[in-house]
Amino acid sequence: MPKHRAWVRTGSENHEPNLTMRISQTKNREGTIPELLQRNAARIPDKPANREKEFGIWQSWTWSEVADETHELALGFLELGLSPGDHVAVIGRNRPRLYWSMVAVQMAGAVPVPVYQDAVAEEMAYVLEHSEARFAVAGDQEQVDKVIEIQDRLQRLERIVYLDPRGLRKYDHTRLNSFAELQEMGGSAGENTRKELERRSADIAGDTTCVMLYTSGTTGNPKGVVLSHSNIVSASRASSEFDGLRAEDSALAYLPMAWVGDFIFSIGQSYWTGFCVNCPESADTLLADLREIGPTYYFAPPRVFESMLTQIMIRMEDASWLKRKMFNHFMAHARRVGPTLMSGGGVRPLDRMIYLLGDLLIYGPLRNALGFSRIRIGYTAGEAIGPEIFDFFRSLGINLKQLYGQTEASVFITQQPDGEVRADTVGVPSPGVEVRVDDEGEVHYRSPGTFVEYYKNPDSTASTKDAEGWVATGDAGYFESDTGHLRIVDRAKDVGRMSNGSLFAPKYVENKLKFHSNILEAVVFGDGRDSCVAFINIDLAAVGNWAERNGIPYSSYQELAANPKVCEMIAEHVRETNESLATDEKLSGCQISRFVILHKELDADDGELTRTRKVRRRIIEEKFDDLVNALHDGEEEIRTETEVTYEDGRKGSIAATLKICDIAVNAPVARMAAQ
Amino acid sequence: MTEEAMDKPSDGVGCGAAVLMDIRNVSLRFGGVKALRDVSFDIREGEIRAIIGPNGAGKSSMLNVINGFYHPQEGEIWFRGKRRPPMKPHTIARHGIARTFQNIALFRGMSTLDNIMTGRITRMGLGLLSHAIWWGWAEREEVQHRERVERIIDFLEIQPIRKTPVGRLPYGLQKRVELGRALAAEPTLLLLDEPMAGMNVEEKEDLSRFILDVNDEFGTTIALIEHDMGVVMDLSDRVVVMDYGRKIADGSPQEVRNNQDVIDAYLGVPH
To answer: CA B74, CA A423: separation in Å to the nearest integer?
Structure first.
């Protein structure tokens, strides 16, 4: 692969040549989110825009109702004293009223800043302080408590509006307002306020800030990514057209509201195409709600698909003999012909018939049980997905695809068109996006969705986005010369060399490890060293089930992780990974020679993972430096003590003696010989 | 006695509030066993009142007297300013007193939803015939009651187990369902018999939060028996301490904690 050549690909070459032009023509007419809301309320007033399960039934709101509610909220915000350009933090789980408040804030000329609801108070303080939010909209008592805890540090914060009044009755209300009060204030707003709102709404243009999203960032403090209305709308428009989304589609909003993907799917694309966004009753009822709604458009990070597959496998183990036999038989068949059928390829008529029978007996009921009966388009992104997991869902007849994106790009950089779906690439450039790989192998892009700037951080803006609008992704990758698909190898800064000069790409190896369902998380170290070593987190659900089946008692993660039999099992997985790595011409040096099963699960509360659950390599390396050294020094076991943070912010510590396992490293196998 | 109790300083919300229930000189005997001896105390509107004491002190008997399951041989019970004549427990339930039990008493084969619906039974006005015909009145009534029940399910955050048979639920959740059923009766006075027994710390914290929220949101007066002193001291506004069927102390958690009789009763005294 000629990695040291600049490759430029543009989505518009393949898909829609005039798209960029068309967007700029329509910018003034349909270019902002509040305008799209007006358009939907006029064109499809009676179609459902939002649903939420509450009190055991699905409550729904049509586009015209959403437009009215949002308008009232916007008036309420004006009555509270919201000024143009202010920031309003929105904290809570996915609920229609929180989505409406974000749009209402936009209508009032201000900027919504959604915040991760599971962030501890300390993390939240940074975002609220940095964004200088004057108001916060909080979902419930838990979020209000967090904001109150840090309010001494927030000079600019004036009021908190809360949605769920439970437990808040006795709070000091001098700086608190209930959501109902806000709506009431809006409803009884006078003529002047209404005129003012009209004036402010008229002032909103394509280049007005639509939303500010904090990237969880694998290093350093989060950065506030400023996205304009034209960023969001053009990205939503292009991607909706790419997949032919329509008003009849429906989606489930369950991913964090602070994540750019949720903003694009639940607001951007929904407002553009008019499809209905459904909010689950609570995080615990998610799977049941998913099944009741049966979305046609679905998005999940690989982790969700992994845990679904693990669940299916665990439950099939417990199923009756006949069911298990049928499942195994038809799944083997699906694995063989399913992906080809899904991509529209030809298979023998007999195979097609067996597949149809399997669809009737196994695949259909399974899709139904998962809530995937009506899925037209499913996306996974954020991390690499295991080929087995990917093929499993595709072979069931679920059109699962991959995309590659960033907050800074309003999500879309590349995505897979129907019929060109593979587990190991991330697809071709999205419509309107230009992608280029520079001499170092780093991927760059330029698109209408490219962010305006990092808030109050011109240095970072300048180092990320150049004068011509090209943005460095920080990811190393290359275009396949025959298909034009982009392949991502690793974070550019993580790619290194081992002391013998061979290439070191930790993420690539970690993903290979994680494809085993017993391994939840892996972190590989080896840059500048002579061998590769790994930290392993076992998957408590999968390994726990295995332990139960084999009569191995355990009471906690720590105890199970320390079991020698578990160690043997993981060693087998590492061995398999090494074998597969040995056949890779570039990365055969990255075989793992030693590993340790960690005594605690890596956790975002401890800063070891980002809120989107990506590994923070540097922090882990620093925190567990005793373990890394022991692995490289050849010690057989190590005593260690680690600080942990509980969900309520209290700290404790775990001590353990960990056993280190050695694994044989294979000699590199030439690709030819392997084939 | 009542006058004395009113005079005592207290830091609770009930301070100064009207007396909801007044128990005057109640004695209860089972044959020769004296379960309660001349016990008097009051419960004020909107407060959380704890009854504590060592095993066999007469706490559960006291609760059973309050909800009319036992009829004391001596003494009077005044409820909402009126002397209460001896009544059957279901009549008393209709008057706004609901309870949960020390050992869970749910319908194990029924779902969470149905169990909580049974709590509405005292509030249902229609007879067997209308319910058999169902359409019209009965349907409308059911919808109203279902809405109340759904609010309780939402309040107690038990949506995921709405349709699960309660027999399949872990202990802590069953306790919560039982609380839900008691709440469904929209009680003025809620009696909780050892709500935290057998729970782990996390379950206790959860349930404490719910008890406070019930008190807060619905303004329900709560009388609870509890063994976990930490819970009692954190939750309650005023505490009655019993030992051998007698009341030995009454006051704010702080006062009770420092009372020598209470310390003796709990730790034992050298004889």
So the answer is: 81
